[in-house]
Design a protein that fits this description.
Length: 226
């Protein structure tokens, strides 16, 4: 039986709470909530906007077209999906893939905060303007600040265009690739010193939170995620 104080077990409990959440109107139209996926202790955490249609159907983040592009970009800098924890600002799909409303982002805020405290990433990759505004409010438009690391309290935030943006505007693909190369250089050169421990018990497990689940992206399309 898993240690109830372990990071893995606490993350499993948090995922279960998210799947049962009715904290905002987005629970009404979802097939299922999409808490996140990846190791319970990860050096790199990736935060997107919201689940799309494929994610809502499968229950895992970034499994559509944008997810496949994300995998390609990660592989290009020597990272596999299993190396990183991936989640979104809101955990349930907005209807017709509209932007999340401010009160929905606010209602979902504690879940992302708890994921950050449990996983304790040293680098948080912010995919697109919603993740940027949620974690670095007022920092500036993504078009101006992408590819430039920002260090806050021992954690490096790395804003990057959302992969879905490059699917809609192929002109952004080269910028997205350049941002990932900048991320790779940053990872190699040594990011910020380790963040102070969270107030809760220290993390003690790095096992995948959804061990045994097929992590290969299924066919299908992610309608909009940026
Ligand atoms: S989006 Fe977040 S707050 Fe809203 S129902 Fe889903 S898990 Fe709960």
């Amino acid at each position: 039986m898993a240690d109830p104080g372990s990071a893995l077990e606490r993350l499993r409990v948090l995922h279960a709470q998210i799947r049962a959440c009715t904290g905002c109107r987005l629970h009404v139209g979802r097939t299922q909530a999409v808490p996140g996926a990846g190791p319970s202790v990860a050096r790199v955490m990736i935060v997107g906007e919201a689940p799309g249609a494929t994610e809502d159907s499968v229950g895992r983040p970034f499994v559509g077209q944008a997810g496949r592009l994300l995998d390609t970009l990660l592989e290009g800098i020597g990272l596999a999906r299993g190396d990183v924890y991936v989640t979104n600002v809101v955990k349930c799909r907005p209807p017709a893939n509209r932007d999340p409303e401010p009160d929905e982002v606010e209602a979902c805020r504690p879940y992302l905060d708890r994921q950050l405290a449990l996983i304790r990433p040293r680098i948080v990759v912010l995919l697109g303007r919603h993740a940027l505004e949620r974690l670095l409010p007022g920092h500036g438009p993504i078009s101006r600040v992408h590819g430039q690391p920002v260090i806050r309290a021992g954690v490096t935030y790395f804003p990057i265009f959302h992969p879905a943006a490059a699917l809609h505007n192929r002109g952004l693909l080269s910028e997205l690739e350049a941002d990932f190369r900048a991320l790779a250089r940053y990872l190699e050169s040594g990011p910020a010193p380790e963040a102070p421990p969270p107030s809760t018990a220290p993390a003690s497990s790095a096992a995948p939170v959804e061990a045994g689940v097929d992590t290969s992206p299924p066919p299908g399309h992610q309608l909009r995620l940026f």
